[in-house]
Amino acid sequence: MKTIALYPGSFDPMTFGHLDILERATKLFDHIIVTVAVNKEKSAVFSGDERVQLIHDCIADKEWSQKVEVHQFTGLLVNHAEKVQANTLIRGVRQISDFEYEFRMALTNKRLAPDVDTVFLMPDEEFTFISASLVKEIAYWGGDLTSFVPKNVADALEKKYENR
User: Fold this and answer.
1) Mapping DSSP to helix (H, G, I), strand (E, B) and coil, where does residue 138 land?
2) Does residue 116 contact residue 47 with C-beta atoms inside 8 Å?
3) Which residue of 5, 51, 135, 143 pairs with 88 in a disulfide if CB–CB is 3.0 to 4.6 A?
4) In 3D, which of 137, 129, 132 has the Cα closest to residue 161?
């Protein structure tokens, strides 16, 4: 049986922590669908299409990229999982506060879709402090992003914030 897992998130922007989780997931699952959540109620730096393209560019040269698909979704995650026949959700957990939130979400998703499991993965220690909101703050103030995000993402952020 082919295992298909969803790796959902806003990915606004994709960070080295996200990439680390994604790479780890490719070792556990046959196919990963990175699902970029698009929520019209939240303001994002990048559009859904821009985020999808940035992720494609981030993974293009990775040896495991053929196991990864990237697309957008709106609505309930478990409905999307059922639509693409994914049996697992991948969630990154950096610290205890992440776990508390993710644990509640996993229980809710399990109630809504009993056949879909959630797997929690921790990023490498060097990435545990990185968050997309921290990256956006650094980018807004013109800080050095090289240790937080891939170059294509840093360039895109600099362009977004060049007229701040």
Assistant:
1) helix
2) no
3) 5
4) 137
Position with higher pLDDT, 95 vs 57: 57
Task: List, in order of start, the domains of the chain with CATH numbers.
Answer: 4-160 (3.40.50.620)
Q: What is the predicted pLDDT for the residue at 1? A: 61
**β partners of residue 7:** 34
- Across residues 33-53, what is the average pLDDT? 91
What is the number of H-type helices and E-type strands within the chain?
A: 6, 5
42's CB contacts (< 8 A; 6+ apart) are 10
pLDDT one-digit tens code per residue, 147-163: 999 999 999 999 999 87
Tokens encoding 46: 């990048």
Cα 59 to Cα 48: distance, rounded to the nearest angstrom: 17
Work out the pLDDT band at 95, boundaries 50, 70, 90.
confident
Contact between 110 and 118 (Cβ < 8 Å): yes
Is 42 exposed, middle or buried (CB count within 10 Å of its CB: 0-12, 13-18, 19+)? exposed
- Sheet harboring 4-9: ordered strands across? 68-73, 31-37, 4-9, 88-92, 117-121
Helix 132-140 vs helix 151-160: angle between axes, to the nearest 10 degrees? Answer: 50
Measured distance CA(117)–CA(14) in Å, rounded: 24
Residue 81 structure tokens: 């999982």
